[in-house]
Amino acid sequence: MAIKDDLIGVASDEYGNQYRTDLLAMYKLYVEMADRISQRRQMANSFFLALNSAIVALIGYVGLAPSVVGHSLFYAIIAIAGIVLCYLWYRLIRSYKNINSGKFKVIHEIEAMLPIRPYDAEWTALGKGKDRKLYLPFTRIEVWVPWVFIAIHCVVFLRSIPWNILAVYFSTGSG
């Protein structure tokens, strides 16, 4: 089923004289809602970036302290928590991307009913996303940030494992 089939609720001749005015008002509201989704997406990114930066700083700070019993366990737990948070962050980015993509498909359909189509024209000016020199989707860059933090958390996790104890354990034939 096409988006247009879902979009049109009442035909213009059935709706009455206010059709164009109401259509424009709904279009304005819908574009504003799309912008709000982008703002929420940015706020979520800022939250996860700050949280991961705090985790990395905490790991560095604790690393300055004298070694204590359970130090390795602390690092492992924090690293696993960081990995889980980053994966959730990545999934959230993908979800926001899908929501935005859907909203812009609807916006393009609404514009087909309006006198001008600025988003369609902008998309054409950007090569419809096919030329990376004209347009590189933010999401393509954005999704790498959680993976960079996942890599950092994996390094911390691997460093938290007491390899020397494991080596002794397995070399004595206990394993």
Low-confidence stretches: none
Main β-sheet description:
none
Structural class: mainly alpha
- Terminal Cα separation, in Å? 60 Å
Q: State the domain count.
A: 1
Q: Could you state the order of secondary-structure elements as H and E?
A: HHHHHHHH
Share of β-strand residues: under 5%
Q: Number of DSSP strands?
A: 0
* Helicity level: over 70%
Rg measurement, Å: 25 Å
Q: Work out the helix count.
A: 8
Q: What number is the mean pLDDT?
A: 87
Instruction: Characterize the overall form.
Output: elongated
Element layout with pairings:
Layout: H1 3-7, H2 12-15, H3 19-64, H4 71-111, H5 118-125, H6 138-142, H7 144-160, H8 163-171
Helix pairs in contact: 3-4, 3-7, 4-7
What does it look like?
The chain is mostly helical. It has one domain (about 5-170). About 75% of the residues lie in helices and about 0% in strands. The chain has eight helices and no strands. It has helices spanning about 5, 10-15, 20-65, 70-110, 120-125, 140, 145-160, 165-170. Helix 4 (about 70-110) packs antiparallel against helix 7 (about 145-160). The longest helix is centred in the N-terminal third of the chain and has 46 residues, at about 20-65. The protein is elongated.
